[in-house]
């Protein structure tokens, strides 16, 4: 059964995930993993790593480094990230229009992501995606912390972890099948709405608000 929530009674606030929802960061992350591999002398299968974006960085690094080195390697990766990942990343189809649709309706569009917040902000600035707020370092159910703080009634994401975050915040879960989870996985996880990509979001939002 769909997870039903009431529509926001005051300001419309819509949360968006970042990687594979608003941005296609695969080329940049791929380049950063290769650079980390070269710097540390540790093999990292970058092709594989970019097929499972979404969870926190540490959950990927533990596949390549001993557990007691993961925190230090995460710091190195984040330091290298602006050099290798920002310019190579592009906006997902419909990303600018989705943010604009929320703001044109008088609402706030916020980004809630597991990505390191300073790097998330660099991506948005580089691509000209004008979110009203950005909150990083939150994954799955913990995304509900920011969604509740900002009063988000809708959360848009590409991963089953995003669905869990929306449900934990009692927000409507709008999933886009542009990341590692296909439409059926997203529905099974409890998404209320599944869109092929963000190009369908403005029309959905108009219908939702009607």
TrEMBL record:
Q: Which Pfam families match?
A: HAD (PF12710)
- Record-level GO cellular component terms: cytosol
Q: Which domain of life is it from?
A: Bacteria
Q: Which Gene3D superfamilies match?
A: HAD superfamily/HAD-like (3.40.50.1000), Putative phosphatase, domain 2 (1.10.150.240)
GO molecular function annotations of the record: hydrolase activity; protein tyrosine kinase activity
Keywords, comma-separated and alphabetical: Hydrolase
List the protein's name. HAD family hydrolase
Q: State the species of origin.
A: Streptomyces scabichelini
């Amino acid at each position: 059964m769909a997870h039903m929530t009431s529509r926001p009674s005051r300001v419309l606030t819509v949360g968006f995930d970042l990687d594979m929802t608003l941005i296609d960061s695969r080329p940049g992350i791929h380049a950063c993993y290769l650079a980390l591999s070269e710097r540390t002398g540790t093999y990292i299968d970058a092709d594989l790593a970019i097929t499972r974006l979404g969870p926190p960085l540490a959950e990927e690094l533990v596949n390549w480094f001993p557990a007691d080195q993961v925190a230090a390697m995460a710091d190195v990766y984040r330091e290298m990230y602006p050099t290798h990942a920002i310019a190579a990343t592009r906006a997902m189809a419909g990303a600018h229009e989705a943010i604009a649709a929320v703001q044109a309706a008088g609402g706030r569009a916020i980004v809630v992501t597991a990505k390191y917040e300073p790097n998330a902000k660099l991506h948005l600035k580089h691509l000209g995606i004008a979110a009203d707020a950005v909150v990083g370092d939150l994954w799955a159910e913990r995304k509900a912390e920011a969604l509740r703080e900002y009063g988000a009634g809708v959360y848009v994401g590409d991963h089953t972890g995003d669905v869990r975050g929306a449900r934990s915040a009692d927000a409507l879960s709008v999933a886009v099948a542009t990341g590692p989870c296909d439409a059926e996985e997203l529905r099974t996880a409890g998404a209320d709405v599944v869109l092929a990509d963000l190009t369908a979001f403005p029309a959905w939002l108009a219908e939702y608000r009607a």
